[in-house]
Amino acid sequence: MYRPERQTLLMKSFPLLLLMPLLLLPIGCGKQDEIHTYEVPKEGADLGPAQATSAEAKPTRMLAAILPGDGQNWFFKMTGAPEQVAAQFETFIEFLKSVTLKAGQPEWKLPADWTQTPGSSMRFATLKVKDTDPPLEMSVIPLPPSGTLENVNRWRDQVGLAPITEKDLTAAEGVSPSLDQEQFTLKAGDKTITVVSLDGKMADNPMSRAPFASGMMGGGMPAPGGPAASTPPAAAAQIKYETPSGWKPGRSGGMRKAAFNVSADGETGEVTVIDLAKDSSPLLPNINRWRDQVKLKAITDADLSGNSEQLKAGDLEATYVKLIGPEGETPRPAILGAIIYRDNLAWFVKFTGPARLAEKEEANFKEFVKSIRFE
After folding, report:
1. C-alpha span between 313 and 4 (Å, rounded)
2. H-helix or E-strand containing 229?
């Protein structure tokens, strides 16, 4: 057993150069004791909780942006050595200005010295800058809508910067893009993109960090220096269901545990199944978020029972809503949604598409929800 008091006595009795060989010698003639390795931090190193990692914090520049979409946000993020990333700033800005959303997915004009590779897991795409060493890339990831300030402050924390307030974020609107401007906004079509340019330090692999705030996914990600997650990851839950006739497999992976494309009479819609942390997924705010997406007014707790119904999914309760947007919209938007709480997770089952197709598929959607089982 490692005993600090014994080490102190030895240090007082022997010079350091004589101590090291003695520590390596086996004691006794029998079985050699198991060797343990201890890492002792250098005296006077005040790393702080965010930087106290086994890897040395290195200067880092981060360019990141949030593009609001219909039902989900799009996150663009490039992190690397300051001089590498700074050299791409103008190209990054021009790239963002070229982004448009078509059928809910982003399209863009790829810069001449960038290449694009297909996404994997949660990534929609990976954009790589040619002839960079170490390789420099940008991730493109879709996620359910979340607070802009929360995400900006998460990025700031990753590079060791202090959080800002909502007032600071609002003050950045209309500010001209500049490498030294920590946050600003851009117009891309009819969308407003929030952009950050952060100069700080990061200890671990910057591309390994998730693009969302802690706790959004099942199990969550602890804040740097914080305690490990006490709940299992979302992937630990196995979901089973019966697919309605005519539904075709869609784009799944990452947070999307299942996805289907639905079509009839020339109209198309999509069904997705996504799991998030229960603690950060209260029922009414999420239903009101869906209502806002189809341009309906928010409701109160008192209105909830009259604007929803309960479905049985095995031994669990699913809160179901049918949301049809106002007349005059072409096509008239609709969402069929169900939220199921199980253990530490909230499961979101959602149809998004035109109102006529929602009416036709409502029975199928309800049967799909009721068929869901967990293992």
Report:
1. 57
2. none
Helix, coil or strand: residue 228 = coil
Give the chain's end-to-end CA distance (angstroms, integer). Answer: 42
Residue 260: phi, psi to the nearest 5? Answer: -140, 145
Alpha carbon distance 224, 161 (integer Å): 12
Report how far residue 127's alpha carbon sits from residue 78's, in angstroms, rounded to the nearest whole number: 9
Residues 248-257 pLDDT 10s: 998 877 678 8
Please tell me the predicted confidence (pLDDT) of residue 364: 97
Amino acid (1-letter code) at residue 250: G
Task: Write the single-letter amino acid at 182.
Answer: E
Q: How far apart are CA 330 and CA 333, in angstroms?
A: 8
Residue 327 class from Cβ within 10 Å (0-12 exposed, 13-18 middle, 19+ buried)? exposed
pTM above 0.85, yes or no: no
pLDDT at 187 over 60: yes
Rounded Cα distance between 108 and 97, Å, is 9
Q: What is the DSSP letter of 253?
A: B
Contact 309, 273 (CB under 8 A): no
What pLDDT score does 237 carry? 54
* pLDDT tens digits along 131-160: 998 999 999 998 887 788 888 988 988 888
What's domain 234-374's superfamily in CATH? Answer: Mog1/PsbP, alpha/beta/alpha sandwich (3.40.1000.10)
For the chain, the structural domain boundaries read 58-208, 234-374
